[in-house]
Amino acid sequence: MLTAILGTLVIGLVVGAIAKFLMPGPDPGGCFITILLGIAGAFVAGFLGRVIGWYEPGQPAGFIASVIGAMLLLLIYRLIRGRRTP
What we know:
The protein is built from three helices and no strands. By secondary structure, the protein is mainly alpha-helical. Helix 1 (about 1-20) packs across helix 3 (about 65-85) and helix 2 packs across helix 3.
């Protein structure tokens, strides 16, 4: 279980950078927020993959699913943060 969490964290770091590369544009938070969203995206992809039945319990999400999860969270983050007034 611990190795799955550590694996998800490492994949999430890389996935955050890839999500930023695939979705260029100004982010209200910079690289640090993008990396955190990548980690969260990897966790979300793993959770949804287990619910759907793609992954077994304790198995981390796949790389492509993690990228899609991170891009989805990055899009949601941009929509929420973009609506706020400075």
